[in-house]
Amino acid sequence: MLLLVLGTAAGGGIPQWNCACPGCSGARADPRRRRRHASLAVRTDDGRWYVVNATPDIGDQIDGRPELRPGPGTRDTPLAGIVLTDAELDHTLGIARLRETDGLQVVSTAPVRQALLDRLHLGDVLAPYTSMTWRELPQRGAEPLDRDTPGLRITGIPVSGKRPRYAADAPEDDAWVVALRLYDPGSGATALYAPALAAWPDSLDRAAAEADCVIVDGTFWDDEEPRRTGISERTATGMGHLPIEGPGGTAERLARLSARCLYTHLNNTNPLVDPAAPQHKTLARLGLEVANDGTVIEL
Ligand code: MLT
Ligand code: MN
Ligand code: ZN
């Protein structure tokens, strides 16, 4: 299994266009501290790629990786489709960015598809540009990620019923946000990708215990961070993101796993966006990492 980390920032990116916080200002001063919106590319057995979440940065994210660039034919692309973990704007606005293609395959849960069709009207809006195919992300049992290629298998594990703000009154469903479990029968490797995590259900615990690599929600360092930094009146948990640190935080759970564990989807208020922050040492002591744009994971 081959995974390319295409971006590691939460909504807004780092720097965020209208933000002068220390994290964003630091990234303007030092381009190495920039982070694009969280996304992952996954290679199929025939050498094509699925991107997990389509961010506002997707054009640059594709162009920034030789593996994802077009060719050899003028309009050939190795991109086979998009898998969505949720319907949040930072994970879906990039779908429209890909409209130059002949066909676009999107794999998601039913509530996510419904939000994109009924609220964002992506089906109607994109129909004159490209043909879209929607596939349901399996939640019970694994299915091939690519129908045409045996090999890599995928399952969605519900981790949050949080609806995007633009669909706040849409029907409740426990699969608004899922973690993705990717299993490669060839190598026997399993990866878990969960850039948004409001809860840690038993199903996720079982999947994490079996995984070789776990990449999870690192939006906020601690539960009070959004309130302390003044970006929200809610806590991290209240915003649908388990914090890293503290009781009930993800660090103590990840530290118990045998998997390689990395954080992604960092908000610009997270102290981890500063490479010199002492919080990096805290994670290192627990054997945990922060994913970077460009991190390559081979399992
Ligand atoms: C989230 O991760 O909670 C969302 O992306 C927040 C947002 O963009 O409104
Ligand atoms: Mn987000
Ligand atoms: Zn900022």
TrEMBL record:
Keyword Cell wall biogenesis/degradation: no
Keywords: PQQ biosynthesis, Transport
Pfam family, one: Lactamase_B_2
Domain Metallo-beta-lactamase: 48-263
Pathway: Cofactor biosynthesis; pyrroloquinoline quinone biosynthesis
Function: May be involved in the transport of PQQ or its precursor to the periplasm.
Protein family according to the UniProt entry: Belongs to the PqqB family.
HAMAP family with a match to the protein in the record: PQQ_syn_PqqB (MF_00653)
Protein name per UniProt: Coenzyme PQQ synthesis protein B
